[in-house]
Amino acid sequence: MFSGGVSLIAIVVLATLSAGGIAxxxxxxxxxxxxxxxxxxxxxxxxxxxxxxxxxNVQDAGRRRKxxxxxxxxxxxxxxxxxxxxxxxxxxxxxxxxxxxWSRRTFWVVGLVCGLVAFVISWFxxxxxxxxxxxxxxxxxxxxxxxxxxxxxxxxxxxxxxxANAVDVIVRGVKAGLPLNDCIKIIGNxxxxxxxxxxxxxxxxxxxxxxxxxSVARLPxxxxxxxxxxxxxxxSIQQRAGGNLAEALGNLSRVLRERKKMKGKIGAMAMExxxxxxxxxxxxxxxxxxxxxxxxxxxxxxxxxxIGHLILVASVLWMATGVxxxxxxxxxDF
Length: 334
Known about the structure:
Structural class: mainly alpha
């Protein structure tokens, strides 16, 4: 009887322990979460110290956040200073941004040749002396600047079109385990111009001993575009604060492609206004040509009479003002 009672008690105790173990196993995760939440609440209220690993992670995150903020502040100040200078850069900088190997002396020699050619052509066509001098001034000061600005604009547009592909090459290379320097060298050897030349220059400046962030920071000076500035900021932050470079550059690549799509949509929407501007701007020349064909004596007074010369000059200035105003109205910057 006694042995039977002891056995019963033992069975009850074992059953209780088994049920408690099962319940503890099922509710262990919830108990652990509640315990962690209580510890965090006590840490926030100042009643307990943070665990060693958690405190270290918090300090690392705070230090990295502070480093990123300081880097962004420095880059923002540098970008503001560069923006003030890039509004009206000197001609030597524009020549470099256009991809030309001219010096200032070559620039003025080209301008002098254009001025002389314009003066000789206008003089042999029978234009008065003051008109010939005006054409010579346009050839001396206007044509070389127009050529440099046009080359500069076309080169920047080509860079923007190819730059997203170059960023994608870096993203794929970094994900595959290649160093960033090797990815830049690949772009400098296999990409299309002018991206190839710019990244080759980055690689060459690194070979001379300059750091990667400093080498990339010079890219917006040679190619004054927001895309180049974004790339320089991402590389500078990654070099100083660390982080996932492939993810950051992947986001940058998406931003660049979205900007390109937006630019295409804006261009399509502005085509109607551009067509209207072209028609309005060409109407005076078309009318002048038709009048010259039908009654030449009527239109030649503008070229033979002194008052006609003044009317022509005033008309050209007035039409040029209208064309520039229409161009400003349909030129959308974003």
